[in-house]
Write a sequence for this structure.
């Protein structure tokens, strides 16, 4: 899309070359054909290091945009970004894509739906009522049980098992809100990447990224009814017990163990080999690896246990 | 159904006219062709204002039933109501209903099932393995992702997005229990009404009402794995983060924000612009709007934070 | 499978007869044609009472294996058991099984998939996009709403209702972990047995047993988004409110009531007629019946309420 068209959509003008824009991205990750935005003062510092062709800013922030990068000045950059995100959303299904490719030895139920552009590897088992979206890619030997939905562009590795009624790649929970309290959807144009040897239980939700990928690394085990927010990264061999979840953009090292009904706030960094007892509530980074935590607010598990003894004494 | 037939089903007699009864409802909402019941002393006062043709009561309560309204006297009115609820339940599917109507420009997968009597508006996208029940109505431009189930009689507005594996209109959790501890299903003969511009995540459960409607108003955003109980009303532009939920009959004003894993007890009234931090447990009405709460038992969020500091001091 | 083949798979040798092994089981439940294992010191005492033909043990434990029972000595018996579990897993679907049997008066959607070997009783309603697995058995008058998955070998009784997008019999969350932190799946070769008059909500996960059965007894009511772990037993007329769950192998008596978002640890015994308030966290056996509990750590509900008053006083 030409920059002029973008400016028209969000009702602004610009000076500079009317270049072709191929997508939107964060300031850090945007390439020279992409558009970015500043919606929060803490990202102003990223303007200087951005390769973006153009950046949506407000009046206060426009001065930070360097020469050679177009400033698109609007009242509410986050809202404008939300409006534009729709323009970059691909079609849900696309008849012009080639028919799906199914690898040798794979067994695909006639009652599954494999959208055009999808690729399924060798020796997979795809059961009835599974949906594999456009340009999704599945590795070899992977089993997908009935009523699983894999949204478009998602990638699942080899030797994976996905249990029934799980949704891989539904939209992350993203929207801008205006002063009237109305919401505008931010289209989630990223995807989900699941590496090899991952097993995911039933009724799990793994959301697609807004930009880039939500990433589930090799050997992860996810139990039933778990929520993985957009842009999370789950380290190798990590374990999520039933009904636990993570808000968006939290990154975990390898072999993190998450007890049942535990939950992470968004944008955290969790050290490898961390263990969280059932119903932990994690709201801060975990920097030292190998420790065990519990409670909400979170404490080291042995401290939490000690605290419960002290609390119980209040009854006397 | 004639009143005599109803009396026979629940094993009682009555004096009065053998009128035609078209349905059951609460005392307050019952019309003059409907049946109602009193199962709880706190509703006795509603008898006087009810338009019901007949009311199921026990021996103690029958004296409150005014002239012109038939009293059906039984030992356990709630149990009798449960028995009768089945008689008023419509067929799950009905071959005699006309074929579904699909609006211009709508794309419905051949692998979706649109039951007879359903109506789908213009320019909708209904993907594979979606089920739209009898007499359900979908507005224009609405997208329903794979493996979503919309039960019969439910209504979804225009410009909505419903993500995969979500169930709209499954039965609310209702049953009567007798002295032996056995349960009798209360058929949920209401529906779900979702207004325009609503987005609902994956693996969400929005239950149908026992009478009337469960209501999700314009602009609401619901994340994944959320539970909305029967007869709830969710105000405009409210936001439910993942794994939160509400028991039945709770009514919320507009722009209520519900943090992840939070939950509401049933039958509450929540002021508009209330915000609940993650894992809030709300068991009482919120009367003043614009406040932020947290914890279980619930406190104002800043009070909850202060309390956590005090609790942590117990360790010293 | 011959014992020699089993020894080859797990890289060990044995002395004794090369008998035919038909399955794996716990020490207590293994028959004389089955293989068992000792992975935890607390089960060593069960070796003496086991009828197993052979037992996988480590060097330290082999001395407890009596004459007439073959000891298969390995470094990590649990890991070896996990490897072998795959050998005993049946095919997901089996073209050689006879076509499904559908009882008189049952209405099965053409868009449902009933796998070979399944049996459906009389007067059932099986809606679109339901999957009934191989050799699954459904009783009479049972209603299964769209997008439900019933995995192979599971049994559902008569007069049951299963709501949309629920998964019955997905694999329990079982794996062995080695010193490198890698996981090996333990195939869950048991099933789920649901007795008569059970209603299960939408988006529920009831996992199949690793050996034997996960059991949901007569008259149970399960609300939406509930997790029932492998090998649980839920007593007659018990009630699980939305978003509650139980880890594996917990056994409950009849009429246990579980509030919303409550959860049980695994391997517990819960007395009949126990009631748990919303968000209870149950980590110990409940031995006395008829009591009401709440909180996490769990207390009697009235004690928990008293404690909250004491805690609130800390603010003064």
């Amino acid at each position: 899309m030409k920059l002029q068209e973008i400016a028209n959509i969000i009702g602004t003008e610009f000076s500079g070359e009317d270049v072709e824009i191929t997508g939107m991205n964060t300031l850090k990750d945007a390439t020279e054909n992409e558009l970015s935005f500043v919606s929060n003062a803490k990202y102003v510092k990223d303007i200087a290091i951005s390769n973006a062709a153009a950046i949506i800013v407000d009046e206060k922030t426009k001065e930070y945009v360097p020469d050679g990068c177009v400033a698109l000045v609007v009242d509410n950059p986050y809202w404008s970004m939300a409006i534009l995100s729709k323009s970059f959303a691909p079609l849900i299904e696309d008849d012009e894509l080639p028919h799906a490719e199914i690898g040798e030895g794979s067994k695909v139920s006639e009652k599954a739906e494999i959208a055009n552009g999808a690729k399924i590897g060798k020796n997979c088992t795809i059961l009835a009522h599974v949906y594999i979206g456009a340009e999704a890619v599945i590795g070899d030997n992977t089993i997908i049980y009935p009523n699983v939905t894999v949204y478009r562009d998602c990638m699942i590795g080899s030797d994976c098992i996905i249990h029934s009624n799980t949704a891989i790649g539904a939209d992350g929970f993203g929207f801008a809100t205006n002063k009237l309290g109305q919401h505008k959807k931010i289209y989630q144009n990223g995807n989900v990447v699941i590496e090899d040897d991952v097993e995911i239980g039933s009724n799990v939700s793994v959301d697609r990224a807004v930009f880039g990928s939500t990433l589930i690394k090799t050997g992860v085990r996810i139990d039933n009814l778990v929520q993985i927010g957009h842009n999370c990264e789950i380290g190798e061999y990590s374990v999520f017990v039933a009904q636990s979840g993570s808000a968006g953009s939290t990154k975990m090292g390898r072999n993190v163990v998450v007890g049942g009904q535990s939950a992470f706030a968004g944008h955290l960094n969790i050290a490898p080999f961390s263990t969280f007892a059932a119903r932990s509530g994690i709201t801060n980074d975990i920097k030292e690896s190998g420790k065990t935590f519990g409670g909400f607010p979170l404490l080291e598990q042995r401290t939490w246990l000690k605290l419960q003894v002290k609390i119980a004494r209040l009854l006397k």
The first helix of chain C runs from residue 3 to 9. The mean pLDDT of chain C is 97. The longest strand of chain C covers residues 34-37.
